C-alpha cells in the first residue's frame, strides 16, 4: 500500500520536472512568434549564445536534482 503511494508521488514529481523543464522552450517559441526581432538577437550575438548555453546547463542541473529528489527506494 505505501509503495503504491510513494510510486504515485514520485511519478507526480517526475511529471512536474518535465513540465518545468519544457517551460523555457515553450516560452522561447511563444516569444519568437510574438517578437521575432528580439528573439533573433539571441541567435545572432555572442551574448545570446552565451545565454542559451547557461540556460541549457541550468536545465540539465535542474533535471539531475529533480531526478535525485524523486528517486526514493523503499
Listing every helix as H and every strand as E from the N terminus to the C terminus, the arrangement reads: HHH
Treating each run of at least 4 consecutive H or I residues as one helix, how many helices?
A: 3
What's the Cα radius of gyration? 17 Å
Structural class: mainly alpha
* Quaternary structure classification: single chain
How is the main sheet built? none
**Termini gap:** 12 Å
Strand content: under 5%
Tally the beta strands.
0
Average of per-residue pLDDT values:
86
| Shape field | elongated
Give start-end ranges of low-pLDDT stretches. Answer: none
The percentage helix is over 70%
Structure description:
This protein starts with a helix and ends with a helix. It has a domain at 36-69. By secondary structure, the chain is mostly helical. The protein is 91% helix and 0% strand. It has 3 helices and no strands.
